[in-house]
C-alpha cells in the first residue's frame, strides 16, 4: 500500500506512527502542500478534497481523512476495540480531535511553523490560543483519571490526539501546564516500534 503525505503534518504523522507500531509495510510518497501538489489533476483523482493524508490500497482503492485511515488500518488489532461502546468512545475522541483540538492547535502551529508567523496572520494565531488550551484541559482532565484517553490501554484515539498534541509547543502552547499530558506523551513514546516525527 502507499501513503501520500507530509511527515511534518500531524494528520499524516499519525498514519506513519500507526504503521510503525503495527509493522505495516507501505511506501511513503511525500506530498508538498505549499507547492500545490494536492491540487494537481493526478492527486485530485485520489482525493477530490485536495488534502493529505491519502491511503492507496493494493487493489487501487483510496481512503482519505486521517482518523478514518487510522481506524481502517487498526481494524482487528488491540488498538481498535470491537466493543460497540468502546469503539464509540474512540470515535468520540477522534471527533473531538478534528473539531475541538486540531482547528486551534494545528492551525496555530501551521501559521507559526509553515508560514513563519507573518504579521498579517498574528491576530489569527493569537485567536487560536484560548480554544487550544481548552482542548488541552479536556485531555488533561481525562488523563488524570486514566493512563490513556479511553481507559487503560492505548487506542487509535490516543494516536489521533498525539499527532498534534506532542508538538503543541510549536503553536505556542506550553505543555508544562499539563503534567498528565506530558506523562501520556512519555507512555506513547515508550511503545515498541515508536517512530518520531521526521
If you had to describe this structure to a student in words, what would you say it looks like?
The chain folds into 2 domains: 2-74, Glutaredoxin; 84-189, Glutathione S-transferase Yfyf (Class Pi), Chain A, domain 2 (Up-down Bundle), CATH 1.20.1050. It is built from 8 helices and 4 strands; from the N terminus they run E-H-E-H-E-E-H-H-H-H-H-H. The chain has helices at residues 10-22, 41-46, 66-74, 84-114, 122-127, 129-143, 156-165, 179-189; strands at residues 2-5, 27-30, 54-56, 62-64. Strands 2-1-3-4 form a 4-stranded mixed beta sheet, with helices on one face. It is globular. The mean pLDDT is 97.
Indicate the CATH class of the largest domain.
Mainly Alpha
The total of beta strands comes to 4
Helical residues, percent? 40-55%
Q: Provide the number of structural domains.
A: 2
Can you tell me the CATH architecture of the largest domain? Up-down Bundle
Q: CA-to-CA gap between the ends?
A: 20 Å
- The quaternary state of the protein chains shown equals single chain
Work out the radius of gyration. 17 Å
Mean pLDDT figure: 97
Strand order of the main beta sheet, please? 2-1-3-4
Q: What's the helix-strand series?
A: EHEHEEHHHHHH
User: Tell me, what's the shape?
Assistant: globular
Strand proportion, as a percent range, falls in 5-15%
Tally of contiguous helical segments: 8
Task: Map the helices and strands.
Elements: E1 2-5, H1 10-22, E2 27-30, H2 41-46, E3 54-56, E4 62-64, H3 66-74, H4 84-114, H5 122-127, H6 129-143, H7 156-165, H8 179-189
Amino acid at each position: 500500500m502507499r501513503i501520500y503525505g507530509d511527515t511534518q503534518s500531524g494528520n499524516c504523522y499519525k498514519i506513519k506512527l500507526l504503521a510503525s507500531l503495527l509493522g505495516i509495510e507501505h511506501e511513503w510518497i511525500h506530498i508538498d502542500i505549499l507547492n500545490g501538489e494536492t491540487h494537481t489533476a493526478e492527486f485530485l483523482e485520489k482525493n477530490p478534497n485536495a488534502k493529505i493524508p491519502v491511503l492507496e490500497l493494493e487493489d487501487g482503492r483510496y481512503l482519505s481523512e486521517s482518523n478514518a485511515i487510522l481506524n481502517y488500518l487498526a481494524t482487528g488489532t488491540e488498538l481498535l476495540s470491537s466493543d460497540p461502546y468502546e469503539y464509540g468512545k474512540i470515535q468520540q475522541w477522534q471527533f473531538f480531535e478534528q473539531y475541538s483540538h486540531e482547528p486551534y492547535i494545528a492551525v496555530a502551529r501551521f501559521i507559526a511553523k509553515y508560514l513563519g508567523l507573518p504579521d498579517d496572520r498574528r491576530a489569527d494565531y493569537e485567536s487560536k490560543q484560548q480554544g487550544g488550551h481548552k482542548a488541552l484541559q479536556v485531555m488533561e482532565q481525562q488523563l488524570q483519571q486514566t493512563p490513556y484517553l479511553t481507559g487503560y490501554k492505548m487506542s487509535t484515539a490516543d494516536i489521533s490526539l498525539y499527532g498534534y498534541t506532542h508538538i503543541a509547543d510549536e503553536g505556542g502552547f506550553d505543555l508544562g501546564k499539563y503534567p498528565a499530558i506530558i506523562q501520556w506523551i512519555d507512555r506513547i513514546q515508550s511503545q515498541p516500534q515508536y517512530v518520531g516525527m521526521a
